[in-house]
Specification:
Elements lengths: L2 H19 L2 H4 L2 H28 L52 E3 L2 E18 L29 E5 L4 E10 L2 E10 L19 E9 L2 E7 L25 E12 L2 E8 L4 E4 L6 E2 L7 E10 L2 E14 L8 E15 L7 E10 L13 E4 L4 E4 L1 E14 L2 E12 L10 E13 L5 E14 L4 E14 L1
Parallel strand pairs: 10-16
Antiparallel strand pairs: 1-2, 2-3, 2-4, 2-22, 4-5, 5-6, 6-7, 7-8, 8-9, 9-12, 10-11, 12-13, 13-14, 14-15, 15-18, 16-17, 18-19, 19-20, 20-21, 21-22
Helix pairs in contact: 1-3
Amino acid sequence: MPHFRQRTTRAVLLSGLMLAGTTPAVAQTAADYKALRSKVDELQRQLDTVQRALTAKEPRGTPPVMAAASPPATDAPRQQGLSDPLHRPAGAPSVLAQGGPSALPAGYGFRIGETNFHISGFIKGDLIFSRYGNGDTATNPLGRELSLPQSIPVGGRRSGILADASAKQSRIAFQTATPIGEKWLTTLIEADFQVAPAVSGGERALNPYTFGLRRAVAGYGGFAIGQDWSNFQYVAALPETADFVGVTDGTVLVRQMLLRYSHPVGNGWTISASIENPETVSAMAGAPALADNDDDSVPDLTGQLLWSAKGASLSLTGLFRSMRVDPANGRPAVTAQGYGVSLAGIAPLPTGKGDDIRFMMTGGRGLGRYVGANVAADAIYDTVNDRLVPVPLLAGFAGVRHFWIGTLRSTWMGSFQRIWNPATASPLSTRQVWDTAVNLFVSPLPRLDLGVELRVSHRELVNGASGMLERLHFTVKQGF
């Protein structure tokens, strides 16, 4: 028990005993005062014994603001600004530093029994104006609301200005932290409405959208199990954008079931490894369509080496996977190995305003579904030679954030992906994509972000056909 609390307790006990069991005349005698002081000291020793017993049963450190399952990175794309919906600064660790008395951090939430609860999220509204340079899109495609390079039409005529508005990206996260032994058992369930409309014609009257799972993770002692961001992805490096991701073309972007272990090794370094859900996405020779096969039998393996200190961070991740396709024509299954390496980080700029540079560079073979929301196939199934050919790619992005004055800030970002399709790939397969955007954000109230973003995106096919997207995006987001 801290010295201040000891002195306060002792004074209260002494005063109480004097008022309850003595008269002013008697209390003034030296003998009675000595006896009274002895009683207070005995009560203090008993209280100290109880306090030590309780402290021995409490876990070390404070409950994590985020589930311990999460890697030391901020949560989701585009939430790296001032009003992060999970109330953590950009690049902050998911688990608070261990040590010190066990107590709830300010604003964490509430406690029922031994479990601490925390509810957070945000309401987000978007108004988007899009114009395609080489064609039009189908009704209600995701590409009208998100920066998805594979959805850009090619080979057509210029479209008119298309307007879309919704609040479907609104999100809620429910977290718990329960002391088990000397550590915290944590859970996180997070969901939003960023899925297809629940009914046909959903925008005619009621605009219903389906509530969909984003993450569901449990963590204890460095272990995590559940659906979370892939360990191959460094989410904290994503820049602040109005778009759902903003740099989709060049970033690793996967949420899936995994089992991960993370361990700090000192001096700002953390290592982690995971086994994750496998899924081979292939294309038939000569066909542009991608297909999920669900034939895999070996989990994907990832590892990460992360360094962070004073607002800077650097992440090196690796991926190895065994891809498998079971042909429907009775032939035996074909397999191929895929691998990838990704370097990402955050570098503060010496302006004293909070400016920084964020970047990522990823390359490898057979990692199409991990990069750019699956622009490229993992592999092409060569039906003539009965083999699976991994597809090589290189992708990356960079973003620079600058604070103009107060909370008024801007981010410029650019991203790309280059795909080397094998000769058996369809001429209609995507060969390369790039994207650039600039935005302006302000936070006039706590956790309230108002933003506008201008974006230009480009897509090119193997046969040389190309398409362009121009977009103006207005957004308002109130976190809680």
